[in-house]
Specification:
This is Isocitrate dehydrogenase kinase/phosphatase. With 577 residues, this protein is an alpha+beta fold. It folds into 4 domains: 107 residues; 152 residues, no CATH class; 111 residues, Phosphorylase Kinase, domain 1 (2-Layer Sandwich); 119 residues, Transferase(Phosphotransferase), domain 1, CATH 1.10.510. It contains 18 helices and 19 strands. The strands form 5 sheets. Strands 1, 2, 3, 4, 5 and 6 form a 6-stranded antiparallel β-sheet that branches. Strands 7, 8, 9, 10, 11 and 12 form a 6-stranded antiparallel β-sheet that branches. Helix 1 runs antiparallel to helix 2, helix 1 packs across helix 3 and helix 3 runs antiparallel to helix 4. The longest helix is centred in the N-terminal third of the chain and has 33 residues. The relative contact order is 0.08. The mean pLDDT is 90.
């Protein structure tokens, strides 16, 4: 009987495992179109979580198959070296080789349980397809020339090409809105002789919207061109707005939002197109936006190594109030923070390591509605010790021994979360003028309310647990106490029967673990009276039980919140005639 070469068998197992993963990933993604047409918003949320969980499930399945190989070679360096070479040949024919590399890395590291500085001969720490974009034979976008079609003709042709399974609510109205917006916001563009619009052939689905993503080009100038399409839930579609400014489109592709469902069969070419719209967005975030967040981790790590080589500053403790659960540090020259779970959480925090990891996982799979920062989870991340300040090393030694190893040369982070750095809201308010304070406090309340409408209760809502982005948006980033809103029991404070009860330091009434008393929040959250007065004029309804109980009832009835990444004043009117 002919024996099977274990090298070929190992490479084939990983290759077929990746192919199975991508097939299922694509199947879930392509189903987004029908879910959108059916306005099946519950299924939208379920499929998003299913697709996120799919990667780890697929990697673990391949690791099990490798463990079942009848050979001792799997523990040898030479075996993995040859498997890697064979695998590189197999994936060179795919349209997504960079994703295949990352999948291999996940299997290799998971199977061998190695650190991040392994021998690059055995994996793809250094990509063999870096800078190599696989191009679609037919192209990934359609081009519409203003010179050939005229503005109304261009938009009409675009509507014809993207024929959804539902009719338009009022096509002519939407086309007129788009044309008017272009004329108002892009006057300079239309003075050029050659103006054209490029639109990706793939529709970007997320939450309740289907976005047509493109760019408008005039000479050397490029601006985004994005049309969010919504379902009126009565059998017709309408265009909600046109986004053609960088800030609005940047917020559409925000690290605080859910991943898009887009059938990007040529992901590297898709990235090239998206970066032409948003050149300031890092590539690793771009991959995450289309659901390839594990490859986003890979790209981040490569960029991180490059940044370390090109910089000389030291890692330091992150500015802000020290956390009771997480130890946080940053590199000043990089807009990223690293978060480690402390060995011992403060007594006031009734949580453990497993609970915290579960909360971070919940944030990963739940709709973040633009109000919770996405995180990347790393294991065994090794960094040069000399880049760490002495005060940070002392903090790590005293607070995070369970997830850090420090040697003469390296600091090994056995488990760490990586997140975009923001300005803590409490620090922002200390430095802001009156107008900026009002805007930030309005955003603070909006963040809490929008999270609640998405069935997320932040738990610890102190100002220090929220950050302000460069766009002025307030985002929550402290996850150890979050829970589903429907798990909470909102109560009114009982009225004291005796003066002694009113003056007591501890509650004189029973308090359960899920009990929440909104009436206590004003002074607790906003001890500064001037800030409290501003906040109460905007969001005073938050301090009543009725507000929260009504939200809970809507969620239990199956209501799915509308989520918009753009301001309300950008939305088109839906008047007919």
């Amino acid at each position: 009987m002919m024996s099977i070469d274990p090298i070929l068998q190992g490479a084939d197992l990983i290759f077929y495992g990746f192919s199975e993963y991508r097939s299922r990933f694509t199947e879930i993604t392509r189903g987004a179109s029908q879910r959108f047409m059916d306005a099946d918003w519950a299924a939208v949320q379920e499929s998003a979580a299913e697709r996120i969980n799919l990667y780890d499930q697929s990697v673990h399945q391949v690791i099990k198959r490798l463990a079942a190989l009848n050979t001792d070679l799997v523990d040898q360096h030479s075996f993995w070296n040859e498997v890697c070479q064979r695998y590189a040949e197999l994936i060179s024919y795919r349209t997504d080789p960079e994703l295949a590399e990352t999948f291999y890395n996940s299997v290799y590291r998971g199977f061998c349980r190695i650190t991040s500085d392994n021998d690059s001969e055995c994996d793809f720490t250094l990509s063999r397809f870096s800078g190599f974009a696989v191009h679609s034979p037919g192209g990934i976008y359609r081009t519409y020339s203003l010179h050939k079609k005229g503005l109304m003709g261009l938009i009409n042709q675009l509507f014809d090409d993207f024929s959804f399974d539902l009719p338009w609510e009022y096509r002519r109205r939407d086309i007129c809105y788009i044309a008017r917006t272009l004329k108002q916001e892009m006057v300079d563009f239309f003075q050029e002789k050659k103006v054209h619009v490029d639109i990706l052939k793939w529709v970007f689905y997320r939450n309740k919207s289907a976005c047509l993503i493109g760019r408008i080009t005039a000479g050397q100038r490029v601006q985004p061109f994005v049309l969010p399409v919504l379902n009126n839930e009565q059998g017709a579609l309408y265009v909600d707005t046109l986004l053609c400014d960088n800030d609005s489109v940047s917020q559409l592709f925000s690290f605080s939002r859910a991943y898009f469902m887009v059938d990007a069969r040529y992901p590297s070419e898709c990235m090239t197109f998206l970066q032409s719209l948003l050149p300031d967005k890092p590539l690793w975030e771009m991959y995450s936006f289309i659901g390839c967040y594990h490859h986003g981790k890979t790209v981040f790590y490569r960029d991180f190594l490059t940044h370390l080589e090109a910089s000389s500053d030291q890692f330091v403790i992150a500015p802000g109030v020290r956390g009771l659960v997480m130890s946080v540090f940053t590199l000043p020259s990089l807009n990223i923070v690293f978060k480690l779970i402390r060995d011992r959480c403060a007594l006031s925090k009734n949580v453990n390591r497993r609970h915290i990891q579960d909360r971070y996982r919940l944030v990963k799979v739940h709709d973040r509605v633009g109000r919770m920062a996405d995180t990347q989870e790393f294991f065994n991340l090794k960094m040069p010790r000399y880049r760490f300040s002495e005060s940070l090393l002392a903090e790590l030694r005293s607070q995070t021994k369970n997830c850090v190893d420090i040697t003469d040369k390296y600091v090994l982070l056995k488990h760490v979360y990586v997140e975009r750095r923001m300005t803590p809201l409490n620090i922002f308010l200390q430095k802001a003028d009156e107008r900026a304070k009002q805007q930030a406090l309005e955003e603070y309340g909006n963040a809490i309310k929008q999270l609640a409408a998405a069935n997320i209760f932040p738990g610890d809502m102190l100002l220090k647990n929220f950050g302000v982005t460069r766009h002025g948006r307030v985002v929550f980033y402290d996850y150890d106490e979050i829970c589903y809103l429907t798990e909470c029991r909102f109560r009114r404070l009982p009225k004291p029967l005796y003066p002694e009860q009113e003056m007591a330091c501890d509650p004189w009434f029973s308090v359960g673990p899920d009990d929440v008393f909104p009436e206590e929040w004003p002074v607790f959250l906003l001890p500064d009276k001037s800030l409290r007065r501003i906040f109460e004029t905007m969001h005073g309804d938050m301090f009543s039980c009725d507000f929260w109980q009504n939200l809970q009832q809507k969620i239990r009835e199956g209501c799915v919140v509308d989520v918009f990444s753009y301001r309300k004043d950008k939305r088109f009117s839906r008047r007919i005639g």
